[in-house]
């Protein structure tokens, strides 16, 4: 299935991979990562958060010895070149590591990927082994003081020397993760202020200087600095990729960075949930552990609901990646360039995963602080760190606002190129939306009601998208409020469908005694996602307006109708088992 096609096509459960069926080798890698985080990182997390960069670098080196810094790098450069599902499993476990996880992801992900995908053989021979083994630390330099979200308007400038041997680089970058410890920077600039380009710049090049460490709200132990370039002579052979194509490097690796962030966010949410339950079981009010009270049980169930949906969509996306990559001959000299090109296909789903994962984490850590009560506000307890560390994820790798705009924006671009049949189905979808009808559901099929709901929600998205384009034509890209509403609709559809596909496929995999838990979590996911979609769809309808508004609103009510009978029992079942086991239970 191509990127964005989930909105116009039905996906079969056998077309996805779910966490319950990862291989023993993938499980072992995840368990190694978990053991490393629990035994090496978490005991030192307070000291790391005091900005002990020597300790941070020590643990990065230890991670490299386990192969984690080279998860994307080819084996010929001492990397491990893992499949995407294994990478997700590792990132999930690393997500509990707070500041260390940020340094790890910045190095292994966006710090390394530009060189892996776009580097020449000579550039890889010179740098990649050092990066994959942790001998050198990598950083990615895109953001500037006046060009954060608007990355195309960077002002860092490079000029080719008269003899053609060097580019003279001037400018500055800000908020650079690993800036204070990195040896190699991928720096984005414009040649002669016009042609976007990328360069590999060593820390020791004359004219490179590192600013002071930022005193951050969260992820305090990671290094975040400005990096300045004053007439830096960059060898011409350190130009990465082609002149004028640097923006492709910048934005393409961000897709994987967003995906890696989402996987780590979901892993961090699992750790926060676990600590919240453990504390709740110990904390007594009115002579009872607070986990005995319905309010805490509901919070617990809602936290698990968000984690389950996020985990489901991440593995679904990982499977899409791996299937696309499998089509490429690994012996092809252009393998990594072709791999990167293949991954571009799923930029919509990457933005979805980033938004959903980061906001699921925010929800979970907020509820964790609430469960800890006053103690959640005190640094002696883990909830306070979870809360501070989580907030940056909605800003990292493109703000969630930008990623929301990308979801419908890229869909509409694909439609204009006839790569996604949005407009072909929009008219029929609109007619279905405003025409009263009654669906006949085959209750003999597992999750029939939820699958019918998903079909209706996709129709709803197509109808609203078509209405917006019909009214605004090409200027729809300026109607950000409408695009946000469409994005929230699409994000929740992908999350809900991913969860249902997972639960449906799990019927043949997990212990039958556990299946009622899957039924319960699907009930809660469907209820929450549908509520979110109804709210977003109403916004879109009112924003678009038109003579058919009342009919459209009636259609929204009809297409978001979901029988959540026994929802309370479903939430209590999820909460009771999680509280008993003191962990995420899927």
Automatic annotation (TrEMBL):
<dbReference type="GO" id="GO:0050660">
    <property type="term" value="F:flavin adenine dinucleotide binding"/>
</dbReference>
<dbReference type="InterPro" id="IPR009075">
    <property type="entry name" value="AcylCo_DH/oxidase_C"/>
</dbReference>
<dbReference type="Pfam" id="PF21263">
    <property type="entry name" value="Acyl-CoA-dh_C"/>
</dbReference>
<dbReference type="InterPro" id="IPR009100">
    <property type="entry name" value="AcylCoA_DH/oxidase_NM_dom_sf"/>
</dbReference>
<protein>
    <submittedName>
        <fullName>Butyryl-CoA dehydrogenase</fullName>
        <ecNumber>1.3.8.1</ecNumber>
    </submittedName>
</protein>
<dbReference type="InterPro" id="IPR006091">
    <property type="entry name" value="Acyl-CoA_Oxase/DH_mid-dom"/>
</dbReference>
<keyword id="KW-0285">Flavoprotein</keyword>
<feature type="domain" description="Acyl-CoA dehydrogenase/oxidase N-terminal">
    <location>
        <begin position="23"/>
        <end position="135"/>
    </location>
</feature>
<feature type="domain" description="Acyl-CoA dehydrogenase/oxidase C-terminal">
    <location>
        <begin position="244"/>
        <end position="407"/>
    </location>
</feature>
<feature type="domain" description="Acyl-CoA oxidase/dehydrogenase middle">
    <location>
        <begin position="139"/>
        <end position="232"/>
    </location>
</feature>
<dbReference type="Pfam" id="PF02770">
    <property type="entry name" value="Acyl-CoA_dh_M"/>
</dbReference>
<keyword id="KW-0560">Oxidoreductase</keyword>
<dbReference type="Pfam" id="PF02771">
    <property type="entry name" value="Acyl-CoA_dh_N"/>
</dbReference>
<dbReference type="InterPro" id="IPR049426">
    <property type="entry name" value="Acyl-CoA-dh-like_C"/>
</dbReference>
<keyword id="KW-0274">FAD</keyword>
<dbReference type="GO" id="GO:0016937">
    <property type="term" value="F:short-chain fatty acyl-CoA dehydrogenase activity"/>
</dbReference>
<dbReference type="InterPro" id="IPR037069">
    <property type="entry name" value="AcylCoA_DH/ox_N_sf"/>
</dbReference>
<dbReference type="InterPro" id="IPR036250">
    <property type="entry name" value="AcylCo_DH-like_C"/>
</dbReference>
<dbReference type="Pfam" id="PF00441">
    <property type="entry name" value="Acyl-CoA_dh_1"/>
</dbReference>
<dbReference type="InterPro" id="IPR046373">
    <property type="entry name" value="Acyl-CoA_Oxase/DH_mid-dom_sf"/>
</dbReference>
<feature type="domain" description="Acyl-CoA dehydrogenase-like C-terminal">
    <location>
        <begin position="456"/>
        <end position="558"/>
    </location>
</feature>
<dbReference type="InterPro" id="IPR006089">
    <property type="entry name" value="Acyl-CoA_DH_CS"/>
</dbReference>
<comment type="similarity">
    <text>Belongs to the acyl-CoA dehydrogenase family.</text>
</comment>
<dbReference type="InterPro" id="IPR013786">
    <property type="entry name" value="AcylCoA_DH/ox_N"/>
</dbReference>
